[in-house]
Design brief:
76% of the residues lie in helices and 1% in strands. With 294 residues, it is mainly alpha-helical. It has a two-stranded antiparallel sheet. Strand 1 and strand 2 form a beta hairpin. The radius of gyration is 23 Å and the shape is globular.
Length: 294
């Protein structure tokens, strides 16, 4: 009886594991199937590097370079905001906070990850955008800069939580050896603790970037919605995710516009896949370096 139960549990968990793979392959299949018609209708280089996205014009133009650049600009700006704050939060919680403070601060930081993105969008529209407009004397506060600030705040929990976990796994013997050699707390932190936790810290940053690149509702609400090549962080932009969300409901099924939106989704999927693969490669590299992997 026990043997039968054990086999049943094994089969159940195996099925669950392969179900994840099945769903992933299904998503990839649908994206490729719906994206291929646009490649047959429009030159792939013209699609990727075209400077104009005018799907309703006659003739329509489907160049996604402005959308790609908008996503990259917003992601870069969000990392400038999120990485220092997230890493600083992790270092404070791990190295400086008292046990009582740690029990309060870490859950509070992680609560930010549970706030719906639309709430961040409202916060950006009602608080951040008017402040940006007033401070910089702009026609509108909805811009790449505003989106970067809000998305940077959204990335803080991911970066802070994973980085703090990585810092907490650094063996105490590393720090004790550093102190024994005469290093002070700051030197130990910079030259011992952070390098030893570099795998987790790097992973947290890349996963934070993946969160920012794939965010939809927030950028749709605060980025400005202009599908033009950005020349400044204070220009309204339209990243890839917000383009899909804004236009999919209006695109006729089977039309060129419809397939173009799926192609944007495929490009976004590949970008996110690269980020996640880089996170895994960096993590494995540092684990091998520290002798923690085979």
């Amino acid at each position: 009886m026990y043997s039968f139960k054990e086999r049943a549990i094994k089969i159940l968990f195996t099925a669950m594991a392969f179900a994840s793979l099945f769903f992933l392959l299904g998503i990839i299949f649908v994206l490729f199937r719906e994206s291929l018609p646009i490649i047959s209708e429009i030159n792939i280089f013209k699609f990727l590097f075209g400077k104009h996205w005018y799907p309703t014009y006659d003739p329509a133009e489907f160049g996604i370079l402005p959308l790609i650049l908008a996503s990259l600009w917003v992601t870069a700006g969000a990392m400038v905001v999120g990485v220092p704050l997230g890493l600083g939060t992790a270092l404070y919680i791990n190295e400086l906070a008292s046990p009582k403070q740690k029990h309060i601060l870490k859950p509070l930081a992680e609560i930010l990850a549970g706030i719906p993105s639309i709430v961040y969008g409202f916060f950006g529209m009602l608080v951040v955008a008017p402040m940006v407009q007033k401070i910089f004397n702009l026609p509108t506060g909805l811009s790449a800069f505003t989106a970067s600030v809000v998305l940077g705040i959204m990335a803080i929990p991911t970066i802070a939580s994973i980085s703090e976990d990585a810092l907490s796994f650094v063996p105490k013997s590393f720090k004790e050896a550093s102190y024994a050699l005469g290093a002070n707390r700051w030197q130990t932190l910079i030259k011992v603790t952070i390098p030893a936790a570099a795998s987790g810290i790097s992973t947290s940053i890349i996963l934070g970037m993946s969160r920012v690149v794939g965010e939809t509702m927030t950028v749709l609400m605060v980025s400005g919605g202009a599908a033009v090549i950005p020349t400044s962080f204070f220009n309204p932009v339209r990243p890839m995710t917000s383009t899909i969300a804004a236009e999919m409901g209006e695109a006729a099924v089977g039309s060129t516009h419809y397939h173009a939106l799926f192609a944007i989704g495929l490009a976004l999927f590949l970008i996110t896949l690269v980020f996640n693969a880089a996170a895994e490669a960096i993590s494995r590299k540092y684990r091998i370096k520290l002798g923690m992997d085979r």
